[in-house]
Please model this.
Amino acid sequence: MATLWDTVVGHAAAKLSLQRAVEQNHTNHAYLFTGPRAVGKFMVARAFAAALLCPQGGCGTCNICRRVLEGKHPDVTVMKPAGKNIPVDAIRALRMDAFRRPVEADRKVYIIKNAERMWEEGASTLLKVLEEPPGDVVFVLVTDNSGAVLPTIRSRCQEIRFTNIPIEDLKEYLVETRGVTEARADLIARLTGGVLGRALDWCDEPWRLARRDNVVKTARALRRADLNRVLEMAGELHREVRAPAEELAADYQEKKQLLDDGSLDNAVVRRFGKEFDEELKRQQLKEELRGVKEVLSTLSWWYRDILIYKEGGDTALLVNRDLEPEIAEEASALPLNKLLRCIELIEESIRAAEQNVTPQLNIESTLLGLQEALYA
Ligand SMILES: [Zn+2]
Model:
């Protein structure tokens, strides 16, 4: 019989260990879910919470399961940073709350997202709860940066490690849940490297695929471009990367307007009321950096594909499988050592993006570097 675990894609080992713990009634007081960003840790945490509260251990269909999955069950609390960090007040409140009896179920679950983002005081408050946890409470700490979680907190938790989802599993999941064609699901699963959250974005936002096409077109055009044209193309790519950030600004403006009118009584908006503009800037930069990294990783996959093809590798290994004729053409024109240099160069740019080098500058220097490496 299908259970709620079947609705969560990938992460077989993590699911099995949590499912067993629930079935055998051997759950710990605290868990630490670690692994790459957007890979599905939170989805598993929520399924785990449902399994803990459901009388059938996670049927996935009863009223309890459904409400937990929809985030509407009073005994499951999800905490996440407000702005940059989880405020110490929120953790103090959680501590008080943890010692109150559950509202409906016989236990309570607290899921803490970005659990590494706490100041020292918050972390030590949390540690106190973890050291003497109330009997009927389970904590699930979720982080993509486990190195930043205090060792004293880590040592109180059972760690569950998450990795990227196998391409085939993700592909099947996208076909079933997003109604995309098999070919497109395959392409998206490869391009996003098995990261669930990103793959879902690619399904919902077709412009990401259009951007991949543009990036590849730009790379191929480097052959015939002069310096001015390279800078022009860098500018075009940068504008594309900026676009979602601009949309964000429009969105904020609209919310702000509503806030001023007093016609929107939204706790979230109000909370950000004071630091509205700062928050917007932060989000925009984040979005822009994400875009740059996506452009760079698209470039990286592109040259890797050419390399694989050139070396006579299995074409099933190609990420941009739909562009095989173009890949073949480039492979016959570009020498091996130059391709390797390109991949190296893009890795450097990705590191630069992680160190917050200005997006426009980064794109420009990458394209100029590629042109020099390939065609100079
Ligand atoms: Zn259920």
Summary: DSSP finds 16 helices and five strands in the chain. Residues 4-161 form a domain with the Rossmann fold fold (CATH 3.40.50.300). The mean pLDDT is 91. Residues 54, 56, 59, 62, 64-65 surround zinc ion (CB under 6 Å).
